[in-house]
Amino acid sequence: MDHNSRNFEKMSITSSRRESDDHSSTMSGSSEIMSMHDQIVRFSASSSPPEDTTTNSILAEKEANLVVRLEQELTQAQICNHRLNQQLKILANSSDKAIKVELATTKKQLKERVNDVEQLKKQVSKYNTEKAMWLSKQPQDVNALLAEKQELRKQLDREQSEKQELFMQINSMIAKLADSGDQDEINRLKSDVNSLKRELEAEKIASNAESARLKSELQKARSEIQNSINDGDKEKESMEQEIENLQRQLNIKNASLQSLMLAKSDTNKTDKLTEENENLKMKVEDLQKQVSAFTTQIHEKNLEIAKMKDAVSVGDVSRKNLDSLSEKLSEMDRTLKDEQQQKAQLRNQTETLKNALAVSEETLSKLKGKLSQFEENALELKNENARLKMSERDATLFDSGRIKELQQALSDEKDNNAILNVQLREKDGKIDRIQVDLLASESRAQQAEEDVKEMKERIMKGKKDDDSNQLLQDELRKTEEKYQEAKKKIENFEVTIRQQESQIRDLGMALNESSSQLEKTETKLQKEESSLKEEIKRLKSQMQQSEQEVEIQKKRVQEMVEDRKVLESKASVADEISTLMSSLNSLRDENRQYEEEVRSLQSEIRTLQDEIYTQQDAVSEWKSRAEKAENDYEKQNHRIRDAEATRDAEITRIENEKKQLEESLEKAEQEKEEAIREASDSVRSMKREMTEASISSDRRIQTLKEKTDSLTRELESSRRRMEQLQEDQMKFVGSHDEIKTELMKDLHDSQEGMEKLKIEIGELKSKNEILKRDLEESEHTNERLKEQLEKADKKIEDIKQQLHSAEDLADRLQEAQILSGNVESKFSDLQKENKIELEKITENHKKELEKLNDELKKSHTENTSLESVLEEQQRELVQLQNQLQDEKEQSSSFIALNQRLEKSEKEKEELEEKLRENFSKNTGTSKTISDLEEKLSELVKTNDSLVLDIQKLSDSLDTKTKQLQRTESELREVREEVDTLKNVEPAENTEMTELTSENARLAGELLKFHSAAEKSLQQEKEKISKQFEERLKTANLEKTRLASELQMAESKRNTLEKQVDDLHTQVETAERRRRVDIHQLESLRDELDQVKNDHEKLKSSTPVAPPRSNTRTISNMSAMTNWTQADFSDCEDLTKLRTEIDKQKRLIIVLRRKLQGLQQ
């Protein structure tokens, strides 16, 4: 029976293993069927051309049939799998016949399903071949469209997957934020901060109220002290009256004693006298006791006064604490305000004097505050001195006199400061006036300069009349004298300004001295306070001396009492009475003195007691308030510290969370990039793995077939052993339960490892597909880069053509310059001829003209503009036109020259247009260069990305190797466990050998699979490294080529820029020459006019009236006759030419700026 039970358990274990293998095979078959179904659907989606409707319908029908059959097969496979699982569960409890029947049925069903799967695979392969044939028959455009559709679908799938990943990351981040703390906590913190601010404000208000209340209570205490002093004075008066009454009583008693002396015989009287004497002694003793009690009270009250002073100092300390609290709160407010506000800027240097005055006023106000404090201290000292003796009152009067003197000194200094302020204001007004005068003088100087200019212009216009020249010279001299006088006035004003500045500095020094004097007075006051404190100490010492004298008097009283006792011991009463009378008289005098002193001391003691009680009450109140204030202060400090700690902790927590979120975002982005790269790498690595996986799947199918055969054989053998196992089962149930559980666990672990390997194979397949897509995309990008390189080559050729055209333009410009040089040579010849004719006549006039020209040049360079020059030239042209009517021959030559100038200007315009074209071409070249640089940067980026991809591939390979090592270690552990089981139970060697053989076979298969995977991975690594090296080489070659092209383009651009600069310089030189020629023409015309005038004067010896105004302007052109308007067209042409020249100048400036920007 035991043997049968063991056999039954072994059969159940093997059946469970086979069940798991069948389940995994059915699952793999179903996954393959699903992948085939997806391929069919994709093919149907991709193969939809618009032309062949018949092929589409046939393919659609085939698709539908295949899909239906696949779905049916899937459902049947699932049902069979479910049935197998149920039947395997029932195997342990079922009989042998039922097991045989069910096993036979399951075998048949499995064979049918395997045959169906093979048929479906054949159909799929046929379908793929038909698809390939159909695609080969179709044109290239259709194939391209289909490929583009597939790529677009892949891109859409990728984008959707990326979107899903991003949504998942966003949700995870939102969850983290929700876990870490939402904005509710931030709002709560803000509300807490606001509440703390409100509490601080409330505590400020409360502290201010308490300070005000304490001040009022101090005033009340001072008023109560004064009232107690007045009550003490009243009690003094009452004590003095009582002393007078006692003196009267003593006088009466003396009279009675004298009457007793007369009546010696009466014994009763003597007895009465003795009794009265004893009563007097008792009274004296009572008085002595009272005196001693009063002295002790005085000592106690002195101690209490010292304590009160300490308490007052404690109150001052509490005040200081409150002040420090208020200052801290104010500093907190200031810091909060300073964070929100920015610092104000400093004012100008002109306001420094005003600021200095404000500072001096502030110092004066501070001194006033200090003086008020000193006055308060003086009042307190007065009150303390009033409590003491008259000597103290005299000292306080002396101190008050000193204080009054200091106050007078301070008032005098205030008056001096006010006077200084008034003087400063007056001087500020003077400075403003002087500035106004300077502005007026400057305006006058400008007017004078303008007058000089006008006079010079008049001199230029009135060269013909010598008298007018002299007048103008006189006017020039006068204007120069005025100008010099204005300069002198300006210098005088500057001197006065300097003097006033020195005075202002002196005033500032005086203010500094006054501030130093004020500081000295403060030190004097402090010294006087110290002296007053010393006087108070001296008065206290005097009080102590008076107390010592009181004690001496007490000793004397005791001695008198002892003497009285001695007198009583004598025999005769008469002697005693006489001694008593003498002693009584002396005692009366002393008693009077003592009584007076006692009354004064009692009054002082009462006042002091009242003061002490009041001060004790005040001190107790102050102590309670101080304790409350300290408790409140500590509570506030604790609250503030807790709030600051919580705020700092929360701020740090929020910052840490923020940093963590940023780091997590960066990590997520990095992981995303790494995942993309790993996907691209894994696609490349899994191309071959797919092929090997397909081969391994075929092998596994064969092994599964072999396993099914072996299972059938094992089932037959298990039937034979069932009876033996049932017999052995009853014996070894207890011993084998644990072994059974351990073996089941090992089997489950091995099954789970196989399932994990299958899942990894599926993931690798998916990664292989992704890698294929990435490879296709990289090929497309390579094609695009090749196209871009071809475009760049074309652009470089265009740039070369543009450079050739620019060189042609440079040659043309040189030719134009040669033509302009010929024109200038002809123009210079004409000028020489005219100069030779006019040298003899104009020698005398040249000197004056040169002087005037020098002065005019200076004035024009400083104050005239281009517009005034143009107007003057227009006027002079009008004069020239009026004079050129008489000389037609010269005018014709001048017209020819103007025409030549116009031609040269047109040529100049053409050259500028060519320059613009060159500039536009240069901009195009610069753009192409920038595009090439961008391409270089893109290539560098792609190179970096490839390096990162290779790194990630190496990381992924390392992870895979680690996984393989883990699986190997797990297999080793399983083997060790099997060996242990072998050592434990030698009786079950047959069964264990079977299990070990199966495990060895599985391990061999796994090792083969892992070795194949490692080889494929190594091969792929080598290929990828080779491809990467090739790509790097190509990228480096392209980089070097592009760099060389960039250098060539930059060198060409530099040459073009140099050529353009040369052209600009040539144009500028041509413009300068043209201006010089125009100026020479104008000078020649002026000289011709002068020669004509001189010639007419020589002809007509009689005086001739002056000619009409030759200076015609645009305003009086309307009054000209028709014969003048005919020649004015030349002037208009010249103005047009000048305007065009100005435009060209502006264009040249713009072009230069652009060239500078390009060079930068």
Automatic annotation (TrEMBL):
GO terms for molecular function: dynein light intermediate chain binding; microtubule binding. Residues 25-35 have a biased composition (Low complexity). Residues 1-35, 512-532, 629-648, 655-736 are annotated as: Disordered. This is GRIP domain-containing protein. GO terms for biological process: cytoplasmic microtubule organization; cytoskeleton-dependent intracellular transport. It comes from the Eukaryota. Residues 1025-1101 form a coiled coil. One of its GO terms (cellular component) is microtubule organizing center. Residues 519-532 have a biased composition (Basic and acidic residues). Gene3D superfamilies: 1.10.287.1490. Keywords: Coiled coil.
